[in-house]
Amino acid sequence: MPSSYPSLLLYALDRAGPSRGPPMGTFTAVGDLGSGMGARIMGIILPLTSYKVMFLCRTLTGAAHFFYFYLLLREKGGDRNANL
Q1: What is the pLDDT of residues 8-58, one digit of tens each?
Q2: C-beta separation of 56 from 49 below 8 A
Q3: pLDDT given at position 84
Q4: For residues 74 and 5, is the Cβ–Cβ distance under 8 A?
Q5: Under a CB-based contact definition with an 8 Å cutoff, are residues 84 and 10 in contact?
Q6: 10 Å Cβ neighbour count for 81?
Q7: CA pair distance 59, 53, nearest whole angstrom
Q8: How far apart are alpha carbons 47 and 2 in whole angstroms?
Q9: Which of these, 8, 6, 17, 2, lies nearest to 66 by C-alpha position?
Q10: Under DSSP, is residue 18 helix (H, G, I), strand (E, B) or coil?
Q11: Which residues of 9-38 are buried (b: 16+ CB within 10 A; e: fewer)?
Q12: pTM, entire model
């Protein structure tokens, strides 16, 4: 997430309007939660399976999130360009 963090945060702030505190706090909290919980969950999966299965789980999770948010933003008619 480090490479996409600045652009995703700017996108969230752009969509938030004048109140920037709650979306920034939510974005940071969810990012921290995902980093912490993802490592722990994959640490549970790895001893039960293999590295191949663990990385497959990470890939499928990432793809599922990408398509979910793509469809969610598309449904709401999200703007593709941030007003910077």
Answers
A1: 788 788 877 788 888 888 888 888 888 889 889 889 989 999 999 999 988
A2: no
A3: 46
A4: no
A5: yes
A6: 7
A7: 10
A8: 27
A9: 8
A10: coil
A11: eebeeeeeeeeeeebeeebeeeeeeeeeee
A12: 0.57
